[in-house]
Amino acid sequence: MKIPLSWLRDFIDISESPEQLREVFDDLGLVVEGVEYTGQDIDAVLVAKVLEIHPIEGADRIRRVVIEAGEGPLEIVCGAMNFVEGNHVPFAPVGAVLPGDFAIAKRVMKGITSNGMLCSARELRLNEDHGGLYVLDELITPVIGQPLVEALGITPDVIFDISVEGNRPDAWSVEGVARDLAARLGRPIKSPVLATTNGPSTGEVARASITAPNECGRLTVSIIENIVVKPSPTWIQQRLSGAGMRPISNVVDASNYVMLELGQPNHPYDASKVAGKTLGVRHAVPGESIKTLDGVVRELARPGRGLGDSGVDVVIVDGDDTILGLAGVMGGDDSGVSDSTTEVLFEAAFFDPMTIARSSKRHGLRSEASARFERGVDPELALRATARFVEILKQSCPEIIWRSEPIDVRGQLPRVPEISLSAFDIERSLGVSIPLDEATRLLTAIQFSVKLDGEGLLVSPATARLDVREGAAGRADVIEEIARLYSYQRLPRRVPTWAEPGGLSKTQRLRRQLRDVVVDFGAAEAWTPTLGSDADFELLDSGERVRITNPLASEESVLRNTLVTGLARAWARNVERGTGDLILSELGNVFIHPKVAKAPRATKGGVAGSVTLELPEERERLAVLLGREEDDARTAVAFAVGIFNRLGVANVVLRTPEQTPNGFHPTRVAEAIDRQSGSVLGFVGEVSPMLLAALEAPEGRRVGYVDLDFEALADESRATRQATEAKIPSKFPSALLDLAFVAPDSVHADDIRSALQLASDEVEAVSLFDVYRGTSLGEGVRSLAYSVRLTPRDSTFSDTQIAKIRELLVDSARHLGAELRAQ
Amino acid sequence: MSDSSPLANLDSQRDELIRQINEISDFAVLREQEPLLVGKRSLLTTLQRTLGQIAENERKEAGALLQGARRLVEDRFNERFAELEMVERAAKLEADRLDLGDVVVSAVRVPVTVGHPNLVASTQRELEDVFVGMGFSVADGPEVESDWYNFEALNIPPAHPARGMWDTFYVDLGEPETVVLRTHTSPTQIHLMEAAVKLGDPRVHAVMPGRCFRRDTPDARHLAAFHQIEGLVVDRGITFADLAGVIETFTRAYFGPTISSRLRPAFFPFTEPSAEFEITCTICQGDGCRTCSQTGWIELGGCGMLDPAVLEAVGIDGSEWSGFAFGFGIDRCAQMRHQIADMRALIENDARFLRQFS
Fold first, then answer.
1. So what's the pLDDT on residue A589?
2. Residues B39 and B95 in one domain
C-alpha cells in the first residue's frame, strides 16, 4: 500500500527523515518496497491562460497555441486536445527541468517555434492522468503567472510503498501504519476529525436487514442529502493520487479516502436508485446472477471447484429484493453514484473473511474491498468510517446533511479472544525476559487491552486485529506483537546444541558418491524439466500420465516418467549449437501414475486430512547420456561397469531384456542384473533412434545411454556389495592362462566368466579380452577369449597344478555348452 | 454396362493389381512400383481418363465403380506399405543388433572428458555441509504431496487466502485441489515430526533440501521449479534466540565473515513469531547499491518459531516442546554467489554454461 508521508503527519508528529522512517518501518515488519518523492522539480511550472488555438497546416495531431503566463503571449506547439480557449493550464517554460530530468527547450515543429511545454498531470507526477493537459479551471480560481505549486497548494511529499503482510489487516490503512509508528516511537496518535449528524430524517427513512448473520456481522447504512457531485479539492486528489488511486468525483473520492485512511471498505449508493432506501444482506440462491461494475455477468451461488467451497455468495439487495452488489467484493452496474446524484445511501459493513475469500476466488474477482475483507476489517469501524466520509465530503460540499439515524444491524461478530500471558511465556518463546510492564506499554500502544491477572496478564487484541487467535496460538500471536514493537534486532542470539551428531544417511552419502563418480567419468550434470508435454509422452508411448490440472503451458502439463526425453532434448540443442560433444547426466525423480505403480504412496489429504489419497510413485533415477562422437552402446557399457565397480557393486551381468525399456534402442540394450539377488539395477545401451529422429538429432549418430535405479543401488539386498573383509594379495607368483572357447550365441559371455571364476579357489580374476566371429567357426557361435589369473595361496604353483586347474576351467565352461577352441 | 465399355474388365484388373501388391515383399520395390500401382501412371488412373468416352447416362455409375475399385487397391497398397515398412525397420534394427554381454570392456577406448557437477547440486551440498557441521541431519521428501501436508498441517486451511501466497500446481488425482506439486519443502517438516512422534521422541534437528514448484511464468529471477532448503529444530527450551543464532552462524559460515544477518517481522501461517531474514548485501558489502535498493541488505528467506497450530496438527505437546523452522532458496544462493543474471540459464543445460562450474 502506498502511504504519503503528509497523510501520516495527520496522525503523528514526525521529525525523522524518510531514510530513518524506512528503517523503522522495515523493523516493524511494514516492509518498504519503494520510496517515491513527488511534487518535486515542478517549481518552475506556471499557471498559463490559453488565448488562442490554431490548427497547423499538414498536421492533425498538434496545434499552435498562444498562451499568456504573465510575460506576454507565447507560442506553444501542443499535442493535447482536451482544452479550449480561455482554459488555464500548467506551463513549463524553456529552461525548466521536469521530474525525470526532463529539460524543456525551444523546439521547432512544422516551422513553428514552441517556447515551452503545456503539461499533463502525469508529466508533473501529480497523478496518473495522461489523457490531456491538467486543466485547472475546475480545481482552483486561476491566477495567470502564479507558480503552480502555490496555486494548487502542493508541498513536496514522500510516498512509502509498504508491503502489508497477510496477518496485518489493520496496517492496510494510513491510520494503522501511523499506529504502529506511534507505538514504536512512543508518541501519541491523533484522531481524525469526524462529522456529526444533522438531525433526524424528514423524508423516507433508510432501512437495513441481515438474513445471513454468519456471513455479515454488521451492516450500517446512512442517508446523506444535499450532495452536489463535483471534483474533490486538490489536496484530496493529491492524497488519492499519492496512494495510487485515481480521483473521480467528490463522493467516490471520499469513499476511497476513508478506505485508504481507516481501512473500511464502503459503498455509496445513489439513494434514488435503491428501492425503499433499504439495504439487505442475504445469501444468493442458485440461478441468480449479477452484472458487476466491471461489466461481467456472474452466476451466483454455484459451488466452485476449489477445495471446501460450497458456493456461498452473499449479496446486497434493495427494498424490492433486487441485487445491488456482490457483498464485500464488488458493486453492481446500476446503483452507483452519477453526476446527477443528490442523495447518497452510504453502506459500511463487516463480512466474514472466509466467505469473501471464497467468493472472490470463485468469481476470479479481486477488488480493494475484497482484499481487505478477506483479511479481516475491524468490525467496530463502520460508523466511525461513516462519520469520516461525511467530514471528507464536506470539504467539497459543506452544505450536506447527514441524517441522524445511521442504521446499525448486527449479525454474528467474531469473538474477541482473551489470552493469558506470563513473563515466563515471553521468555520461553523469545529467549529474553521482557518485563510485563514493558509488554503492557507496547500492547496498549496498539490498542490491545491488557489486564493484570495474578502474576501475569490477560490480553485482548484490538478489534482491528482479527488475526489474533485464542489459546496457545493467540499467545504466540501476542508475543510476536511484543517482539515486533520491542524490535527483533534487540533480541538476543544463541547457538543451540544437542547431543546427536549431524550427518548424512547412508543413502545420502551414496547419492553424493554416485554423482561424484559420474562427474569423474566425464559427465556434465544437467537439470532438465520435471514437467513435460503430452507430445513427449507420445514419442515414447510410455503409459499412464500424471497430469497437472492447471498447467501454465501445454509443454509443461505432465509429470515426467523418464529422464531420457529431457536429456536427449538438452543434448540435441547442444548439438545444434555445436557443443554436442559431451556427456550429460541427471539424478532425479520420475513419477509413475498410482494406477500402474507397483507401490503407490497412500497418504492423507482433503479437508482435515480425512481422505486417503493415492499419490504417484516417485522413483529416483540416474541417467547418463553419452553424446560424444565416439560414443555408442559399448562406451555406455564401459561407463556403467565403471559405476558399478566404483560403488563396490561386485557382480553385475548385462542381459538382453525381454521388453525394450522406454527410450532405448530395441536391439542395443541390456538390463544390468545383480547376480546374487537377481534384481534389475538399471539399463544400458543406446538411445532409441526413433526418439533421436523425433528430436531432430543428427541422423545416424549413436548416443550411449545408462539409466540406473537409484533406490535399487542404495539397497544392499538388491545391489550386492563386495565383501567388506579385505583380502591380502598372495606373495607367490601368479600364472596367466588365456583360454578361448567357442560358445553358441545363447550362452552368455559373463556366465562363462562367472563359471571360470568359481571353478577353483586359485582363480583370482577372469576377464573377457576378445570376441571373434568368423565363417570358420560356423553360424550362431562365436569365440570368447578369457584371461584367467591363477594365484596360489600357500606355495608356488607346479606345472601339474596349473594343468589340473586348466582342466577344471575347461570343464566348467563345457557345462555351459562352450568348447575350448582348437588352437 | 456393355462389353465394349473401357471398364468391362475392371474387376479382374483390380484383382490383378491387388495380387501384384501382395506379391511384393520388399519395401524398396513397393516404393519403386508405387506410381504404377496406385499413382499417376497406374492402370486405374488411365481408366479414369477414358470415362469421357462413356455415354453420359452411364458415366456416373461407371465413375462410382471405378472409384470403388480404386479405393480397394489403394487400401491394400497402404496396408502393405505399412507392413513392409515395419519389416524393413525391424530388419534394420536387427542388422544393428549388438549383444552387450559380448562387449569387451577392457577394449573400449574413449577419450578422457572432464565432467562438471551441476551448480545447484553442488550449492545444495555445500549448504548441507554447513548445517551438518552445526549438528543437523539431512532429510528428503517427496515432490508430489497431498494438500494436507503442503497446506493444512502447516496451518493453511482449505480456501484460506493464505493459500494464495503460493501459486500452486495441482495434480489431476483425487478430489480437485487435494494433490499438489509441493510449493515449498515445509511438508517434509510435517513428515519428520509425525515420524518422530511415532517413535515417541519428538526431537528433530534436520535440514530438508529439495525441488519445489510454483505456478509462475519463468523469468530472469524465477523458475517454475526451484530448490529450497528448510531447517527444523524441535527440542526442549528452544527459543527465538536459538533461531537467530543458527541463522547468523550459517550466514557467516556460508557467505563469509563479513556478511551478517538480521531478522524483521513477517507473516507465515506455520510460524509465530515469524521473521524474514536478510543478509548483508553480498554485492556492496552493506554500503548500499542497486541490487539491495540502497538498503545494504538483501532478503534471503523466512523463519520463525513453530506455530502452536502446527505442533497440534502433528500431535506434539507445545507446553513441553518448542521449535523453530527456516527456509530459503538454494538456487538463489547460487545466483548470488555467481551473479547469475538470468536464472533460466540453469535449465538450459548449455554445455558452455555447465562447464563453468567445478
1. 97
2. yes
Over the stretch A437-486, which tens digit does the pLDDT of each residue have?
A: 999 999 999 999 999 999 999 999 999 999 999 999 999 999 999 999 99
Is B109 part of any domain?
no
Residues A691 and A749 in one domain: no
Query: Residues A633, A753: one domain?
Result: no
In a domain, A657, yes or no: yes
> Does any CB of chain B come closer than 8 Å to the CB of residue A780?
no
- A279 and A213: one domain? yes
Choose from A481, A613, A673 for mutation: most chain B CBs within 10 A. Answer: A613
Distance CA A536, CA A669 (A): 21
Question: Is the distance from CB of A414 to CB of A430 less than 8 angstroms?
Answer: no
Is the dihedral angle over the CA atoms A16, A19, A20, A22 positive or is it negative? positive
Task: Kindly report the CATH number assigned to the domain that includes residue B145.
Answer: 3.30.930.10
On whether both B157 and B304 belong to a single domain, the answer is yes
Q: Which domain holds residue B26?
A: 10-102
Number of domains in chain A: 6
Report how far residue B65's alpha carbon sits from residue B60's, in angstroms, rounded to the nearest whole number.
Answer: 9
Tens-of-pLDDT digits for all 358 residues of chain B?
455 677 778 888 888 888 988 999 888 888 888 888 888 888 878 877 777 777 778 778 888 888 888 888 899 999 999 999 999 888 999 999 999 999 999 899 888 999 999 999 999 999 999 999 999 999 999 999 999 999 999 999 887 777 777 789 999 999 888 999 999 999 999 999 999 999 999 999 999 999 999 998 888 888 899 999 999 999 999 999 999 999 999 999 999 999 999 999 999 999 999 999 999 998 889 898 888 888 889 999 999 999 999 999 999 999 999 999 999 999 999 998 998 999 999 999 999 999 999 9
Q: How far apart are CA A215 and CA A208, in angstroms?
A: 15
Q: Which residues of chain A have pLDDT under 70?
A: 823
Count, in order, helices (H) and strands (E) of chain A.
20, 43
Residue that finishes a domain, picked among B72, B102, B132: B102
Determine the residue type at A111: G
Q: Which domain covers residue A548, as residue numbers?
A: 506-714
- Contact assignment for B307 to A668 by CB distance below 8 Å: no
Residue A770 domain-assigned (yes or no): yes
Asked whether the beta carbons of A533 and A556 are under 8 A apart, the reply is yes
B96 located within any domain: yes
The answer to whether position B2 is within a domain reads no
Residue A586 lies in a domain: yes
Closest in B135, B272, B349 to A501, CB measured = B135
Residue among A627, A737, A745, A772 nearest B101 (CA): A745
What does the pLDDT read at residue A590? 96
Task: Identify all chain A residues contacting B101, using CB atoms and an 8 Å cutoff.
Answer: 653-656, 670, 748-750
